[in-house]
């Protein structure tokens, strides 16, 4: 089974399957293309949402509010192990049967985890969806975690830990600096706990967190009635599970020096939560207004963040992009930068000064608003990213806004609201994370 440690970035290429051509012809005659989401809440509090856009490839996800933030000190790394265990033997199907049957219908099954959610996702041609859903339901709700299968996957766990990119590690450290525990928990299993997750501990985590009140089922290219039938037949315990602790932003520094010649640095303050939609959209516009990197390959960017750093470092190479992450009850906003270690201090100082400038021009805000809308609309073209977007809304907020509704909300964000978000960034307590050659990188209390 495929697995990803985090959800895909906002721009992601849609998978295209040539084998779906005949199915496309059939569906295009009967189903009009639509981006409107239909959402229902079952009597057991399970949220079901779908967009039937007439796609020849159907995408169905079962999501749980059970990400790494909910791990306790004695269960760190559980979600990483659960992701790797997706597709192992279940109560109804062996690992071999799952793999063989999905291959026979040309389907894929993957598991993705982030700090708040675990998502099991099936992609299949629409005429084979019924067969694929049987195995999606097994993998998402009927795990058994046989000890020898878990043990057999330890080498894969070690391989993933050994191959972490500097950026994955950097964002992990940034969250640890900002939150310490909860949202500060790593997406990855700590080295010292590799091999310590037993069948009993995994079952306990699943039974307490994989409940209907904490779950959502979403689909793209799927009939809403069919999705409701699938959701109603899922073998999930009802109830809300254990109570959740609220996120507490702390701020501070976490650094990891390596032999790399480059310095990778992330700086952030507390941002907006998803529950405050208006403020979250203002921070999203602010992110694109500050700049999210060049839009032309090997090109440069005229964004305020790039201009500020470029004027400070001259001809020295660097890369910098604004960073924004919103969670249920908190968020982070800042930037991520990379440069040779000898100029890293200059890069960070210049970027922090721009980040905490407090205001943006109307031109920059308009640019940010336009770029955000383009990114949202681009997401609507990919079944995978569309399923991720509506899935995140459904499982975390209990409701789903369609693409046109989000675009309308972005249009309503004013310059004053974006500058209010910028003012919050200006006065916020800094969190700083670094990986690489950090000799010249300042600490948070040295930054203004």
TrEMBL record:
<dbReference type="GO" id="GO:0046872">
    <property type="term" value="F:metal ion binding"/>
</dbReference>
<dbReference type="InterPro" id="IPR007863">
    <property type="entry name" value="Peptidase_M16_C"/>
</dbReference>
<dbReference type="Pfam" id="PF05193">
    <property type="entry name" value="Peptidase_M16_C"/>
</dbReference>
<dbReference type="GO" id="GO:0005739">
    <property type="term" value="C:mitochondrion"/>
</dbReference>
<dbReference type="Pfam" id="PF00675">
    <property type="entry name" value="Peptidase_M16"/>
</dbReference>
<feature type="domain" description="Peptidase M16 N-terminal">
    <location>
        <begin position="47"/>
        <end position="191"/>
    </location>
</feature>
<dbReference type="GO" id="GO:0016020">
    <property type="term" value="C:membrane"/>
</dbReference>
<dbReference type="InterPro" id="IPR050361">
    <property type="entry name" value="MPP/UQCRC_Complex"/>
</dbReference>
<keyword id="KW-0496">Mitochondrion</keyword>
<dbReference type="InterPro" id="IPR011249">
    <property type="entry name" value="Metalloenz_LuxS/M16"/>
</dbReference>
<keyword id="KW-0809">Transit peptide</keyword>
<dbReference type="InterPro" id="IPR011765">
    <property type="entry name" value="Pept_M16_N"/>
</dbReference>
<protein>
    <submittedName>
        <fullName>Cytochrome b-c1 complex subunit 2, mitochondrial</fullName>
    </submittedName>
</protein>
<feature type="domain" description="Peptidase M16 C-terminal">
    <location>
        <begin position="199"/>
        <end position="356"/>
    </location>
</feature>
């Amino acid at each position: 089974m495929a697995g990803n440690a985090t959800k895909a970035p906002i721009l992601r290429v849609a998978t295209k399957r040539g084998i779906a051509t005949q199915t496309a012809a059939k569906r295009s005659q009967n189903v009009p293309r639509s981006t409107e989401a239909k959402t229902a809440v079952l009597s057991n509090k399970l949220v079901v949402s779908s967009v039937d856009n007439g796609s020849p490839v159907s995408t169905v996800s079962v999501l749980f509010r059970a990400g790494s933030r909910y791990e306790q000190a004695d269960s760190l790394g559980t979600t990483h192990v659960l992701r790797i265990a997706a597709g192992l033997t279940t109560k109804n199907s062996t690992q071999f049967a799952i793999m063989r049957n999905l291959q026979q219908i040309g389907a894929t099954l993957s598991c993705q985890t982030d700090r708040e959610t675990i998502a099991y996702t099936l992609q299949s041609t629409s005429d084979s969806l019924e067969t694929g859903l049987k195995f999606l339901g097994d993998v998402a709700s009927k795990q058994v975690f046989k000890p020898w299968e878990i043990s057999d996957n330890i080498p894969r766990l070690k391989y993933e830990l050994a191959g972490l990119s500097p950026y994955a590690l950097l964002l992990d450290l940034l969250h640890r600096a900002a939150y310490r525990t909860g949202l500060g928990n790593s997406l990855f299993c700590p080295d010292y706990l590799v091999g310590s997750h037993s069948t009993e501990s995994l079952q306990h985590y699943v039974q307490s967190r994989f409940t209907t009140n904490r779950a959502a089922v979403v689909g793209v290219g799927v009939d809403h009635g069919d999705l409701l039938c699938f959701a109603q037949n899922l073998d999930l315990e009802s109830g809300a599970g254990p109570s959740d602790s609220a996120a507490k932003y702390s701020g501070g520094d976490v650094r990891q020096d390596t032999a790399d010649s480059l310095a990778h640095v992330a700086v952030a303050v507390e941002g907006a939560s998803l529950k405050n939609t208006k403020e979250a959209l203002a921070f999203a516009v602010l992110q694109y207004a500050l700049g999210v990197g060049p839009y032309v390959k090997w090109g440069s960017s005229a964004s305020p963040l790039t201009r500020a750093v470029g004027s400070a470092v001259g001809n020295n190479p660097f890369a910098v992009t604004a960073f924004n992450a919103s969670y249920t009850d908190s968020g982070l906003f800042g930037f991520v930068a990379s440069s040779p270690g000898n100029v890293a201090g200059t890069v960070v100082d210049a970027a922090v000064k721009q980040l905490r400038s407090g205001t943006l021009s109307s031109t920059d805000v308009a640019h940010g608003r336009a770029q955000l809308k383009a990114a949202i609309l681009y997401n609507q073209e990919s079944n995978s990213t569309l399923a991720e977007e509506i899935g995140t809304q459904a499982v975390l907020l209990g409701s789903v806004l369609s693409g046109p509704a989000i675009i309308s909300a972005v249009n309503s964000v004013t310059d004053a609201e974006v500058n209010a978000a910028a003012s919050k960034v200006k006065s916020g307590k800094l969190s700083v994370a670094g990986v690489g050659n950090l000799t010249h990188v300042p600490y948070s209390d040295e930054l203004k």
